[in-house]
Design a protein that fits this description.
Rossmann fold; alpha/beta; four-stranded parallel sheet; 137 residues; single chain; 4 strands; 23% helix; 3 helices
Length: 137
């Protein structure tokens, strides 16, 4: 799967961006925010697509913003869309990333590789040197 065009990517929150702890906000899944930032840098539009609403949705959006992600849209296909029960509640996207996929959620590194067909260049925090680190030279 190699997508050359810019994509609209709908991403679930609980169990996908964060560990599932609903109604609380769970711990961020490893590489979730780094991968989403890279996808945005690549020009893809990210939509937060979640069951959350009201205050719980606001908490999820704020958590993502605190971690450097502002979505193109939240629970809608585009920012100006108004949901009025006359159109389908399903949003439009090229790809949906959700922990409820058949086979479960992939790791975020795998997600990036599938979308771009390349290795992610994600900088990770350097590991602290343990007691036996001198043996690994």
């Amino acid at each position: 799967m190699n997508f050359q065009d810019k994509l609209v990517i709908a991403i679930d929150f609980d169990g996908t961006i964060v560990e599932d702890a609903y109604p609380k906000v769970g711990k961020a899944r490893i590489f979730a925010f780094e991968t989403m930032k890279r996808l945005q840098q690549d020009g893809h539009r990210l939509i937060l697509w979640t069951y959350r609403s009201g205050e719980k949705l606001a908490e999820a959006v704020a958590f993502c913003q605190d971690n450097g992600i502002t979505f193109y849209a939240v629970n809608q296909s585009f920012p100006e869309e108004k949901y009025d029960n006359s159109v389908s509640r399903k949003i439009y996207a090229d790809i949906y990333i959700d922990d409820r996929n058949i086979g479960g959620v992939l790791g975020w590194g795998e997600v990036y590789q599938m979308i771009t067909n390349e290795e992610p260049n994600i900088k990770t925090a350097s590991r602290k040197k343990g007691f036996f680190s001198f043996l690994k030279k």
